[in-house]
Amino acid sequence: MYKETVLPRVLEQVVNCKDEIAQYYLMDCIIQVFPDEYHLQTLDVLLGAFPQLQPTVDIKTVLSRLMERLSNYAASSADVLPEFLQVEAFSKLNNAIGKVIEAQPDMPILGVITLYSSLLTFTLHVHPDRLDYADQVLGACVKKLSGKEKLEDKKATKQIVALLSAPLDKYNDIVTALKLSNYPRVMEYLDSETNKVMATVIIQSIMKNKTRISTADRVEALFELIKGLIKDLDDAFHDEVDEDDFKEEQNSVARLIQLLHSDDPEEMFKIICTVRKHILGGGPKRLPFTVPPLVFSSLKLVRQLQGQEENPFGEEESTTPKKIFQVLNQTVETLSNIPAPELALQLFLQCAEAANDCDLEPVAYEFFTQAYILYEEEISDSRAQVTAIHLIIGTLQRMHVFGVENRDTLTHKATGYSAKLLKKPDQCRAVYACSHLFWVDDQDNVKDGERVLLCLKRALRIANAAQQMSNAARGSAGSVTLFVEILNKYLYFFEKGNPQITVAAIQSLIELITTEMHSDSSTPDPAADAFFASTLRYMEFQKQKGGAIGEKYEPIKV
């Protein structure tokens, strides 16, 4: 009865009344008042009336409400979905929207996008498995947008973000969205600010759902989508970018790079190369955020390959640690060019350590050389130099891959740098840290007691000079902290069995410190006093331990 009598008569009245407000109100009434299944069975008749309404009627809102009702109906229960398929609801709605847009040539772009957005939501609810339908809707949207510049209308861009977010919310999986060929084409029409917003939405979706993106092709497609965050799409926004927002955006890209992973080393190497290609165009502000995660991703792959070398595959593996290190070298170099020398130096040292674990001496030596060049040529700030030299010493101490000649060259350089630091206390600390380069516990070929003693004596001379300078400049000798620190080094090597560190040397150092502390010119320093007291307590404790250690400490008078 509704189909044959009621609806046709009512629609006839609505179309004939020619009053735009009445038409809008009555169509809305029909949609809201009659049940969902009635609308489904009479879609043809109902949709046929829309193009006949007055051109000024707000059809987009009415149609959107109809699709919203049907979407909710479809979502309410799986049993009703066959009805939708039976009446071919998608194609009918799609055709109707096309006709309405044709009938109203001056419909604003916001209206067009709103209609397609509602249709996409409807499609995702009713036909979640039919990706081609969703792609078709996006394609129709691209068609309408083509020929237009980037969208300036704020409401329209907001609607496009809603349109593009719908598949992500529905599938909870960016991999599915990447299969939609028109998805990136719709993004092209967003201005660069909104493009960034959309890219952030995509990254958040990946993180929330812990999506695994494990092929280079998908990574390529994904980075095409989020290119708004990876490089400047236009130059206009340079000055206006808020520093905190920018950091937040780049940190999210860095987190994304860490999530890309494939268990197959070949594929993982391709992913690394794909990411590298995209991020290197990001400009000097972005590289310090995006290069480190890429470097560590690559080092993770190096370690994975390193574990597999005991059981080599039959065929020749094309992804080798050597190959990855070549890519790493070029990648980290870009940082030193921008310039971010401190960061580049840290990454070179990380790579050197990984090369050391893979037993690749020439590669490790090359990374060290790069780090040294940066130290000499780029790092001029004295605080940065102190940090860098301690990093260099710490990394070099853990190296076991170097032959005598290479190790000597690098060690000699490091001790040279240490003695050239600006402030005497910094010099002293770096020089006594170098003593560890000549005595490595688990390497018998690196146990040179004499050189250790030389370093410590040199550190003592520098500490003495620091005292005298302080005396000359301020009239007081300053703190004895440096002497106590050197005493601790003496004790460390004494315990390790370095024959050059004698009881007499330790004894005289203890006396020197005691004398300095009681001299008139020294400045009282409670921290140094406590440090010295706890060092003496430690020596007492070692004496009482008994055994070999106790015997060692016995002759020392505290």
Describe the structure.
- By secondary structure, this protein is mostly helical.
- Helices cover 73% and strands 0% of the residues.
- The chain has a domain at 452-557.
- The protein has 29 helices and no strands.
- The radius of gyration is 36 Å and the shape is elongated.
- Mean pLDDT is 88; it is low at 310-315.
- Its main location: cytoplasm.
- InterPro entries: ARM-type_fold, Vps35, Vps35_C.
- Belongs to the VPS35 family.
Summarize the structure.
It is elongated, with a radius of gyration of 36 Å.
- Strand percentage lies at under 5%
How do the SSEs run, as a string of H and E? HHHHHHHHHHHHHHHHHHHHHHHHHHHHH
Number of strands: 0
Helical percent range?
Answer: over 70%
Termini separation (Å)?
Answer: 110 Å
- Helix segment tally: 29
Compute the CA-based radius of gyration.
Answer: 36 Å
Shape: elongated
Question: Mind describing the biggest β-sheet?
Answer: none
Structural class: mainly alpha
Oligomer: single chain
The low-pLDDT segments are: 310-315
Explain the layout of strands and helices.
Layout: H1 2-17, H2 20-33, H3 36-41, H4 43-49, H5 59-76, H6 81-86, H7 89-103, H8 109-126, H9 131-145, H10 154-171, H11 174-178, H12 183-187, H13 192-209, H14 216-225, H15 227-230, H16 243-259, H17 265-279, H18 287-308, H19 321-337, H20 341-357, H21 361-377, H22 382-397, H23 404-419, H24 424-434, H25 449-474, H26 481-495, H27 503-518, H28 526-545, H29 547-553
Helix pairs in contact: 1-2, 2-5, 4-7, 5-8, 7-8, 8-9, 8-10, 10-13, 13-16, 14-17, 16-18, 17-18, 18-19, 18-20, 19-20, 20-21, 20-22, 22-23, 22-24, 23-24, 24-25, 24-26, 25-26, 26-27, 28-29
